[in-house]
Amino acid sequence: MNSVVPALPSPPALSLQRVEALAAKRGLKLRLRAPRRLGVWSLQVVVARPLAADRAELLGELKGWCLPISAGLQLDTMRVQGRDTAGVGLLIWAATFAWALECTPCRRAWLLAIRDRERQHARLVRYFQQRGFGPHRQLGAAVPDLPGRLLWGGSGLLMVGDCQEGLNRCERRLQQSAGP
């Protein structure tokens, strides 16, 4: 007689609230601001280290915007700076993907791996691929690329990523960095 073992329920996906709690556990503040005007969200995610009562040191920031469609998340600027910033970028990515999945119809995100110097461009492409983004098309100097270059602010590799896959990757990396 065959016995069927019921599947264990999968753990809940990493939520924005959980990402904020992970940041707090590391002594950091993560804040996401996404005002919506005329149907478009303007997105800003920041991670800071509290210093004094009303002061904080900015460690990382992501800016973008979002249309209310499945492929509407456009990520524009991402930077991490300062000392002791290990894991800051990961928290920002996790918060961004969780927000998109929880609060918008967006399931895919777009970004441009800008092409300034070839070595830096290659590093950016690898970094974004580790976050679940894949190549879509090159934006270069050709006339048909002009609208894309105006929208994205430069030339480079336009990349697209699945928000759920990106969140899953972030969750695995956050679990690894937390230790046993």
Main attributes of the structure:
180 residues, alpha+beta, Aminopeptidase, eight-stranded mixed β-sheet
3D structure, described in words:
The chain is α+β, with helices and mostly antiparallel strands and 180 residues long. Strand 2 and strand 3 (40-52) form a beta hairpin. Strands 1, 2, 3, 4, 5, 6, 7 and 8 form an eight-stranded mixed beta sheet that branches. The protein has one domain (16-178): 3-Layer(aba) Sandwich (Aminopeptidase). The chain has helices at 16-25, 88-103, 118-130, 146-152, 163-178; strands at 29-33, 36-37, 40-52, 55-66, 73-80, 108-114, 133-139, 156-162. It starts with 15 loop residues before the first helix and ends with a helix. 31% of the residues are buried. Helix 1 (16-25) runs antiparallel to helix 2 and helix 2 (88-103) crosses helix 5 (163-178). It is globular and about 50 Å long. The longest helix is centred in the middle third of the chain and has 16 residues, at 88-103.
